[in-house]
Amino acid sequence: MDADVDERSETQREIMEATYCALRTRGYADLTIQAIADEFAKSKSLLYYHYDTKDDLLVDFLEYGLDRFAAEDAVDPTDSPTAQLETFLDDFLPASLDDDQRALQVALFELRSQAPMNEAYREQFSRADRIIHETLADILERGIEQGEFRTVDINYMTELLHSIIDGGMTRHLTTADETTMTARRTLDTYIESNLLTDE
Amino acid sequence: MDADVDERSETQREIMEATYCALRTRGYADLTIQAIADEFAKSKSLLYYHYDTKDDLLVDFLEYGLDRFAAEDAVDPTDSPTAQLETFLDDFLPASLDDDQRALQVALFELRSQAPMNEAYREQFSRADRIIHETLADILERGIEQGEFRTVDINYMTELLHSIIDGGMTRHLTTADETTMTARRTLDTYIESNLLTDE
Questions:
Q1: pLDDT in tens, chain B (199 residues)
Q2: What is the ipTM, given to two decimal places?
Q3: Which of A15, A159, B95, B129 is the S-S candidate for B186 at Cβ 3.0 to 4.6 Å?
């Protein structure tokens, strides 16, 4: 990797951090590209050089954020499928959220609420949805092969788990379900009763 | 009911309709109380007399909208539990959305994205969440009593169905799942395999 690429990606990382901080402080509705520039340590003109509008910037933020949060990296390939599934769930529907995890989830949720009106956002969330689907399906496939999981319809089970994860997080963030996550307990019970073999 | 109350509730209904139209056209981020006043046929001062800020108004809009959409009214008490469950799901996770249903869901979803930061919104969504929970639990209880449903843990099953409904709608609105709703098919399969008795 040459120095130019290194520097560009370092600048990009810093822009993304600034965006995250501004989004966390102000929320989407009050976010301006100026507010992001205010959080950015380097020259403001560098930021304006890369991005014309807050939406351009936020699409890149989503791509970057959803990649960092990417499901592929969430699991250790040397783990057993059962352990992989647990790690995956701890990432996407943890039993409780610390302040940073909550702030990230809230920021992503607010951006997600714009996806119905914004095609570029919708593409990013579709991409993330596909990555989650494929990762879960892979874990299930391996678990069935290795006898840790029952022989279930992989696509159906993946869809079901994925909707429970998204619905559980939505309900957690937007209702008075404030401490440990009710949905995670429900999901764990479901997995024990319907997916794990009795070994 | 006296004429004053009638007129007040008629005015409220018109304010709520104006809010819905403004929200639908502009989205939450660009919504102003002026934009709502522009959609309101009666005197603007009447609207400003009732509400100081857009957030005051939107809390009432949520209360009104979630009441109209209330789960209690979604089911016919003379129906069988199986038919009640289907009507309920057709309301909360229909197999497809027409333009008006989609616009309402998108507006509610955008307001919901503000709930983590806004306690008054969060209270409204908590209330709606409880109503949905209680309605579903009642249907399940009757269905078990009448032998249409298997003897399941009602609270667990209610939580599971509720998260699938919310997650399914979120995924539908924010990804490229644009025609018939994948999550509804998954949910129907789940209910057939895990809830309905074989009669």
A1: 455 556 668 888 889 889 988 888 887 878 888 889 988 888 888 888 888 888 889 999 888 877 766 655 667 888 999 999 999 999 899 999 988 888 888 988 999 999 999 999 999 999 999 989 999 999 999 999 999 999 999 999 999 999 999 999 999 999 987 667 889 999 999 999 999 997 5
A2: 0.88
A3: A159
Contacts B101 to A, Cβ<8 Å: none
Q: Under a CB-based contact definition with an 8 Å cutoff, are residues B50 and B15 in contact?
A: yes
Closest alpha carbon to B171 in A129, A21, A195: A129
Q: Give the one of B27, B121, B156 whose C-beta lies nearest to A186's C-beta.
A: B156
Q: Please enumerate residues of B whose Cβ is less than 8 A from a Cβ of A.
A: 27-29, 102, 106, 109-110, 112-117, 121-123, 125-126, 129, 156, 159-160, 162-168, 170-171, 173-176, 182-183, 186-187, 189-190, 194
